[in-house]
């Protein structure tokens, strides 16, 4: 009846509006040069006021209009589809990317503790933008130093 050519679109994700009581902001961008390749994570966060600790991809996206968009009720916990036992993860920034939850950016690459402005670029072969373990359509949370949101 019909036919079509497959078009390959290499995925890119960029965070939208930031929510929360602190006037911090910035951008976290995820991209892949080729499908199934490592994900490049480009982080540019501003005005953290030394209040930030860890940052992670969470399970659900932000609910527009929510009174508490960063709450555990709205976006649930860290994205961990492989049910990684986090008690066996090394300290933040010292292990390999496969030793942390898929969404644990600060575990894999280090905390934001003591930072006001933070810029970095990482390559992560274990944070896919396609497939069953994709981080697309989720959210990123920058936690306070005590782990709260």
UniProtKB/TrEMBL annotation:
It comes from the Eukaryota. InterPro entries: Cu-only_SOD (IPR053257), SOD-like_Cu/Zn_dom_sf (IPR036423), SOD_Cu_Zn_dom (IPR001424). Coiled coil: none annotated. GO terms for biological process: superoxide metabolic process. Pfam families: Sod_Cu (PF00080). GO terms for molecular function: metal ion binding. Residues 26-144 form the Superoxide dismutase copper/zinc binding domain. PANTHER family: AGAP001623-PA, SUPEROXIDE DISMUTASE COPPER_ZINC BINDING DOMAIN-CONTAINING PROTEIN. This is Superoxide dismutase copper/zinc binding domain-containing protein.
């Amino acid at each position: 009846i019909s036919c079509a050519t497959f078009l390959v679109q290499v995925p890119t994700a960029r965070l939208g509006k930031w929510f929360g009581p602190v006037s911090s902001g910035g951008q976290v961008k995820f991209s892949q040069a080729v499908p199934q390749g490592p994900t490049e994570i480009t982080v540019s966060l501003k005005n953290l006021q030394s209040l930030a600790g860890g940052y992670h991809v969470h399970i659900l996206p932000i609910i527009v209009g929510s009174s508490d968009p960063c709450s555990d009720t709205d976006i649930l916990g860290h994205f961990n589809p492989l049910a990684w036992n986090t008690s066996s993860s090394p300290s933040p920034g010292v292990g390999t990317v496969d030793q942390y939850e898929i969404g644990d950016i600060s575990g894999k690459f280090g905390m934001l503790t003591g930072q006001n402005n933070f810029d970095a670029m990482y390559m992560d072969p274990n944070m896919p933008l396609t497939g069953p373990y994709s981080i697309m359509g989720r959210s990123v949370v920058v936690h306070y130093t005590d782990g709260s949101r």
